[in-house]
Amino acid sequence: MPFLNANGDVTELYLGTQGVELDETNPENRFQVAMLDVVDGLLDESAVAGKPLIITATGKFFTNGLDTDFIFANPAGLPGYLDRVHALYAKVLTLPVPTIVAINGHAFGAGAMLALCADYAVMRTERGFWSLPEAALNMPFTRGMAALVRTRLTDAIATEAMLTSRRYGAADALAAGIVQEAVSAEELLPRATEIATGRAGLAGANLGVIKRGLRQPLLDDLAVLTPATLL
Fold it and tell me: What are 69-97's pLDDT values in tens digits?
């Protein structure tokens, strides 16, 4: 399960299980329902701590997004499950602390969209792709997810990413503006920490107010309940 790590003037949120590189119960760090519950609570804790937050992960994946096993086993629960994912995005988008995502590995689908919710993104160069595979998988985007991609990326890149399911390595993701920096694995957390520390003085309730004002139309789209007819 995800966990927090206090590191000086910053807080680190790991998608993964403390003490192991690969969680055998969730090796791709997918959004299991229990995981969403834990992450929601940890985000609340990070907000109370009032320190910049780095979101990263253990293993070869940052996160592979939706828990497809749960979806196939509970089709009637899909709209509510997607609404939970939307709520996760909204919380990260509006945290009253600076947020930096350190993409340590593959970020696919809903996991790639989570990376877009942070204020700043750093991606490792040696391994991992950022990709929205929904078109290739014959899956639609929800209204909130489409709004997130459209808001956080340029129209040209959002169109390419959503309609072609292209896999972007770190260099391509940087060129496309999906991430702001691409660094080696050894530099990933130190660089994210450097950026986060430099923004520590901005943390506080006012930052949350500014984020809400900046992103209100997107937040409104994320708050729209997913219709049962989506799929």
Answer: 999 999 999 999 999 999 999 999 999 99
Residue 136 CA to residue 22 CA, distance in Å, equals 27
Q: Looking at this protein, which amino acid is placed at residue 182?
A: A
Paired tokens of 142: 């929800």
Do 174 and 123 touch, CB atoms closer than 8 A?
A: yes
Alpha helices per DSSP H over 123-169: 143-152, 155-164
**In 3D, which of 89, 197, 179 has the Cα closest to residue 128?**
179
- Coil, strand or helix at 41: helix
Q: For 22-56, what is each residue's pLDDT tens digit?
A: 889 999 999 999 999 999 999 999 999 999 999 99
Domains present along the chain, CATH in parentheses: 3-223 (3.90.226.10)
In three-state secondary structure terms, 123 is strand
Ramachandran angles phi, psi of 95, nearest 5°: -60, 140
